[in-house]
Amino acid sequence: MTPADHGHSDRHPPGHDAERVETLYDGQWLRMMRRGHWEYAERTHGKGMAVIIVAVTPQDRILFVEQYRVPLAARTIEMPAGLVGDDHAHDTLESAASRELVEETGWEPARVEVLLTGPTSAGMSSERIAFVRATGMRKVGDGGGVDGEDILVHEVPRADAPAWLMRKQAEGFELDLKLWAGLWMIERNPDGTSAQ
Question: What is the rounded CA–CA span in Å between residue 21 and residue 155?
Answer without folding.
Answer: 45
